[in-house]
Amino acid sequence: MQILKTTITLLLTTYLVSACSHSDSSKQNTAAKNNAVSFDKVYQTISEEKLRQHTKIVSSDEFEGRSPTTIGETKTLDYLVSNFKALGLKPGNGDSYLQPVELMKTITNPNMTLTMGNHSFTYKENMVASSKREQSRVELTDSEVVFVGYGVVAPEYEWNDYAGLDVKGKTVVILVNDPGFENPESGKFQGKTMTYYGRWSYKYEEASRQGAAGAIIVHETAPASYGWSVVANSWSGPQYSLVSKNGNADRVAVEGWISLDAAQKVFSDAGLNFADEKAKALKAPYSKALDLTASITINHTFKKSVSNNVIATLPGSKAPDEHIIYTAHWDHLGKDENKEGDQIYNGAHDNATGMAASLVMAESFAKLTERPERSVTFLVVTAEERGLLGSKYYSENPIIPFDKTVANINMDALNLLGKTNDISVVGMGKSELENYLLEAANKQNRVLTQESRPEAGLYYRSDHFSFAKVGIPALYAKGGSDPVDEATATYRKRMSVIITGCYHQVCDRFRENWDFGGVLQDTQLLFDVGYQIASDDYWPKWNATSEFQRQ
């Protein structure tokens, strides 16, 4: 096993070094070298105690779970702004540390039925549906149904499931994930590793671009990476989106899911076998009219509100208009007064740890006797838990122009399982930012490894993705799975059960016995990465195999 690990490490190192076209990417430039003593000293002063203190404070009951537009938001914003201001960081939005974000809360009436072919399907039992359109009533009435395979248009993979189709006003039925997942030996897409084309959000976006009236995804547990209960629970209850100038009139009217059992019945009604049609869609771009219709009526109520992103900048010494942006989200799930006992979703791991790292890194950059050439900006966003809405709003309303944004580094739910010998790179192989990460990892005697479940598409599920979508290279990396010693392994085995079980639960609260060694490692690591990029004049690029490129 050790020989295999060493071999993988050597291959990875060779790949990363050869992938970088910039001759100085594995070194800090002259300015960084001249400032090395100051950097090293500051690097060493990053402490577990400060990370622990910030995490404990912002995840305390006083902050009431940090739900957007509540007293919890007010207290969180005050805490972040007062700290950034005290550290000497400048307001990032003119003379303000805040960027207002308009949110739309939509409550969908669960009294709905989806009729397709000869069958009617029940809300949450075998179908869920909603609409992004800001209309109190949305309907599909006898809408023609077309199976469009994976619903993908990907020129770089020579794949277009909509080729020659006119689906305007029709309802499209779509497979989840992308064609590589269940056919990894085909060389299509990226095998088991999900691309953005496999995400449900992409499928609705593409259906909207094609002019469809409805878009229904067929749920299957393995390619979705979660069971039907996750779909049913996530899509029921209040949903959030950004306020749109056109009321999201350009979105597909009805967005939904059906269970595998429901899909099999629909295809049977059309005289087809679902498994056979799926097999065809796996091999090549594919579509098939089902010669049946879909009908559904969805009723909504709406409420607008305003939340805020926090943005603070340490200006660069020579190129202050060029920025490295660190992101973390400040929000969590708030307070549920209908629960008995503990009602507060404190969100200590997710994402008080990321906020703590932001503040400690900001302090570290502010301590440098010579500032990096480029500016370093901290963007702590709202409504990540509502669908990456704060970062999405920023990407649609950027304060720093995209052509002046060099890179994004994201921090979300940092490693509370102790120090590791490895670093998990989410979406590994996407950009040259990994070359800077490798150099920082070498200083810690750590190796880079791919995330444990690349098929789950985690790269598309945190705030860095909002930057990637507009072409800005974005890095998401944190502690791996190989503990540094036996004591850490024992702690990790015990604590991982607690942390995993407390995800999005009221038990995600601060614990005095948490080992912050892993959080410290990763804070130092990402501080180093940002420092390298900010002290350089090179613009990192996406790798050729990435689905993202600068616009």
Task: Provide structural commentary.
The chain has 551 residues and is an alpha/beta fold. Helix 11 (348-367) crosses helix 16 and helix 13 packs across helix 16 (517-534). 49% of the residues are buried. Residues 1-37 have low confidence and may be disordered. It is built from 16 helices and 21 strands. Helix content is 33%, strand content 23%.
Oligomer: single chain
Number of helices: 16
As a whole number of angstroms, the C-alpha radius of gyration is 24 Å
Please give the largest β-sheet.
17 strands, mixed
Task: Provide the fold topology.
Elements: H1 2-19, H2 30-34, H3 36-45, H4 48-58, H5 71-86, E1 90-91, E2 98-108, E3 113-116, E4 119-122, E5 127-130, E6 137-147, E7 153-154, E8 159-160, E9 171-175, H6 200-209, E10 214-218, H7 221-224, H8 228-235, E11 239-242, E12 254-258, H9 260-269, H10 274-283, E13 288-314, E14 319-329, E15 334-335, E16 344-345, H11 348-367, E17 374-381, H12 389-396, E18 405-410, E19 422-425, H13 433-443, E20 447-450, H14 464-468, E21 474-479, H15 486-501, H16 517-534
Parallel strand pairs: 6-9, 9-10, 10-12, 14-17, 14-18, 18-21, 19-20
Antiparallel strand pairs: 1-13, 2-11, 2-13, 3-4, 3-13, 5-12, 6-13, 7-8, 13-17, 15-16, 19-21
Helix pairs in contact: 4-11, 11-16, 13-16
